Amino acid sequence: MRQPMLVSALKSYSRQDFLADLSAGITVAMVAIPLSLAIAIASGADPATGLVTAIVAGFLISALGGSSVQIGGPTGAFIVVVYGVIAEHGYDGLVLATLMAGIILMIGGYFRAGNLIAHIPEAVVNGFTIGIAVIIGTSQLKDFLGLQADHVPADFLEKLSALWAVRDTLSLPSLLIALATLLLIVGLRRLAPRFPGLIVAVGIGSIAVWALGLPVDTLGGRFGALPDHLPTPHLPEISRDRIIELFPSAVIIAFLAGVESLLSAMVADRMISGTHRPNAELTAQGVASIASSLFGGLPATGAIARTATNIRAGGRTPVAGMIHALVILLVMMLAAPLAGYLAMPALAALLMLTAWNMSEPHKWKEHMQAKRSDKFLLLLTLALTVLLDLTIAIGTGVAIGLALRLRERKKLDSDWTTPER
Fold it and tell me: Where does the sequence pass through the membrane (predicted)?
């Protein structure tokens, strides 16, 4: 079924539903704003593109998607791919790859490819997710520690070597702000899980930098002022050679968007005892990616942490996700200058914690107790993701995983235990 969940929800929509969705939408927007900025920066893009993606793609994923409570936007899973595409093909290349990925996802939704997630080995998903978490974490060391480096290579080993070479430039104020922000996020999450602690913690850390006059990099100091409006939509430059060149990147973006969104929808189903529509979700992801690219935004997908926040805050229908996008737009229009004061170490701390949560440390023991073939597949995918390339990691992992299943003469059924990412 490809009908958007919003259509079904509006048939019996009530005033109580709207008030619940309004409260949840505002709450999740406060969580999404600092995350969207931080993810865009870590991806090598302008921070404003993170907000644009959260607004445009976030609205459409909720309006057209197959989940009642899914929240869409930029996510950490894309950081590695987006950074690589921008570095190799420029930002215009990323925009075209995102547009192509959207078309691929729409085709997948039309041909009901949503159920194919059952055939992707769970060990592969765990492996590349942990690998992405490692890369995200190491990419934030420069700002977390306040290191002074003109250029940090994208390659994992070269990056560590470059950061080690400038270790004597460590900034104590930056480190203290990062640690304080990290502790505040963890503390607020435990004391008040429904409270938007992310933006409060990042805000407090940034206010401390301003009030104390600390020599710490800020968002405005590094990137300039954020815009207070959405850009005018336009098509990227399209040519046959460019399409062929960017097709592999588009396939990876589409794969990640599809898998991440369906994982998020599965987690949401478990939390609300509901059922999502996978093919409607894929179609919505495709439309959202196309729209995001037209506005110069990043790839987007269902965000598991933001979706869980929406549910805990009382969100009932897709209207909550649409409100979340509109609230971000309102904040962008009214308070863009204030974002310039956000401290880079505080945003780095936010992404460090995001990376830690992505790796699911509570499941490490379970991974190590899995059967030998699953451990091998997880570690192989992880190593290839970190040391080589995400495309190689996913292709190799899926191929070997399916070959192992065929060798064991097992029926190709899903062996998922729903992730808690």
Answer: 21-42, 48-64, 93-111, 123-141, 170-188, 195-213, 246-268, 326-356, 376-404
